[in-house]
Amino acid sequence: xxxxxxxxxxxxxxxxxxxxxxxxxxxxxxxxxxxxxxxxxxxxxxxxxxxxxxxxxxxxxxxxxxxxxxxxxxxxxxxxxxxxxxxxxxxxxxxxxxxxxxxxxxxxxxxxxxxxxxxxxxxxxxxxxxxxxxxxxxxxxxxxxxxxxxxxxxxxxxxxxxxxxxxxxxxxxxxxxxxxxxxxxxxxxxxxxxxxxxxxxxxxxxxxxxxxxxxxxxxxxxxxxxxxxxxxxxxxxxxxxxxxxxxxxxxxxxxxxxxxxxxxxxxxxxxxxxxxxxxxxxxxxxxxxxxxxxxxxxxxxxxxxxxxxxxxxxxxxxxxxxxxxxxxxxxxxxxxxxxxxxxxxxxxxxxxxxxxx
Length: 357
Prior knowledge:
The protein has 357 residues and is of the alpha+beta class.
């Protein structure tokens, strides 16, 4: 999950301390005699643009924050990314190996290890639909891409030692939430006014837990997913002769094991209240089902997974107070309570809700 263009000042204040660490990471690669490094984005990790002025070559260096992923988990992510690219499933920025032939470079930062990954630089821009019709069309692109990814994930023989975390009830809204407690997120956003919102969200969270348990995690319903496949993580390259630009899928940092339709919920991050939500969901599902058939019970779980993601984001906002992902976290928390009311009443995506377990 990216925290947007606004830099987290808590993180930014520590960036100067990383100069020596960056030098150690860059020294592992063949980047020319004097590479120029510029901070590009701040999210869960730091991403730098690296350029060799002598040749004009450019790269993106991702410096992982300590403690979020271990070396084995990052290696597993990169193995999937490289397999998807090699098999032509989706276009992803190429992973650049270091002089030792490894996709992952690890250096020491005090007592902790810091991991770096280098990608070839890909030119392009994130899609910015100008109207509702363009937004709906963009969700068809996301659904098609998700269908291809999930088909690959189901048939791909994962390498020995492949290890990624799971997006389960326990690690989303449960006691082991990876992005923090949604209850704490509500409290952080609303302070003394949190109580009525919490009272509205509690029964919805309980219903989500029950319905997920009834739905289950069989191999026809869950597997390896991207888990953050939003328009913000697409990059459209320059137009090619006779056609549009190549669409690159970025940021597999959150990929792991979860419900396949969670990738639809992730696509709707921060716009779950959109008046064109049914059209977005419909476009995604129609494109997706060109690759994988869904039965009514699958489609019926969409409202549950969308609200699960919504509450997960409430928790994420609580642990990322400087994020600009939403203009008003307090309003986002209050609006979540209204979505929960509609969900419990069967009024949230009602055309799908009737098929839920």
